[in-house]
Design a protein that fits this description.
8-stranded parallel barrel; single chain; alpha/beta; globular; NADP_OxRdtase_dom; TIM Barrel; two-stranded antiparallel ribbon
Length: 307
């Protein structure tokens, strides 16, 4: 491939890790679903927007909606109301959730708590099974063998179909996976054109080695791509805008597509709670990246030339 030939375009669907579950290669995330007094009817419009755009992969967590004073589980509960009102929606989605954080504690993956967290998520979501259950952040005080046993029990009981992790180091992934009978299918690190750590620290290499699907949270750099302030962030925006302008898409869409061009098959999690912005994300499938353009973004993000 020459520098100006385009990289392979991601398919609209792929298998989730080594499982038989087929997911869209762009996901919709619900960490802000329960904000601003959103009703079940309002939430349903967003769910429909994602599904109608071709995103069948929906990601939530029990901590979403928690503001430090109360409301733990609000996002899951709100989605549960949507599913209770329209049960047919459940069959159209691959539902992912996360647990293992217990306010006011930082993290808790003891067997008793993790088992109860899975049951609580099922109850709030008003579903019998969670398609992908992820440990949200690693509990340093939990032995991975104990965590693995609890997760395997949940799979055996039919409460969970597949397993994943979020914010785990490569060694934490390896340790948990070693003890699991039902091997991990996904990992969810923070990935964006402004956070490129996982490109060089081995996380994506490990994902490809183990067959894990990488789910990228905060793919727009926590909103910093929309309004870049630092010289580095502005430099990244310039490179994204150059490709976006040439191909008639927004900087946001270019950012999603840049991640998706990586051979690990990164699935960006779209965090917007606006139907139009959710639908716009699928324009990422139209963007073509040359190696030269792709590396130009990486170099801008590194702030220095490649060795």
């Amino acid at each position: 491939m020459s520098a100006n030939e385009t990289l392979p375009v991601p398919a609209a669907k792929r298998k989730l890790g080594n499982s038989e579950i087929e997911v869209s290669t762009i996901a919709w995330g619900m960490w802000r679903l329960a904000e601003n007094g959103r009703t079940a009817a309002d939430a349903a419009k967003l769910v429909h927007a994602a599904l109608d755009a071709g995103m069948n992969f929906l990601d939530t967590a029990d901590i979403y909606g928690f503001d430090g004073a109360g409301g733990f589980g609000d996002a899951e509960a709100l989605l549960g109301e949507v599913l209770a009102a329209e049960p047919a929606l459940r069959a159209r989605m691959v539902l992912a959730s996360k647990g293992g954080i217990m306010p006011p504690l930082p993290y808790d993956q003891s067997a008793a708590y993790l088992a109860s967290a899975i049951d609580a998520s099922l109850k709030r979501l008003r579903t019998d099974t969670i398609d992908l259950y992820q440990i949200h952040r690693p509990d340093i005080l939990a032995h991975p063998q104990e965590v693995a046993r609890t997760l395997d029990d949940a799979v055996k009981a039919g409460k969970v179909r597949t397993l994943g992790v979020s914010n785990f180091t490569i060694h934490q992934v390896a340790a948990l996976n070693q003890f699991l009978d039902n091997k991990l299918v996904s990992t969810q690190p923070e990935i964006s054109p402004l956070r490129i750590t996982c490109f060089e620290n081995g996380e994506l290499d490990q994902a490809m080695m183990l067959g894990l699907t990488p789910l990228g949270w905060s793919p727009l750099g926590g909103g910093r791509l929309a309004n870049p302030q630092s010289e580095r962030d502005k430099a990244v925006a310039v490179e994204l805008d150059r490709v976006a302008g040439a191909q008639g898409v927004s900087r946001t869409v270019a950012a999603y597509s840049w991640l998706m061009a990586h051979p690990a098959g990164i699935i960006p999690i779209v965090g917007s709670q606006q139907p139009g912005r959710i639908a716009e994300a699928t324009e990422a499938y139209k963007v073509r990246w040359s190696r030269q353009d792709w590396y130009a973004v990486l170099v801008a993000a590194r702030g220095e030339r490649l060795p």
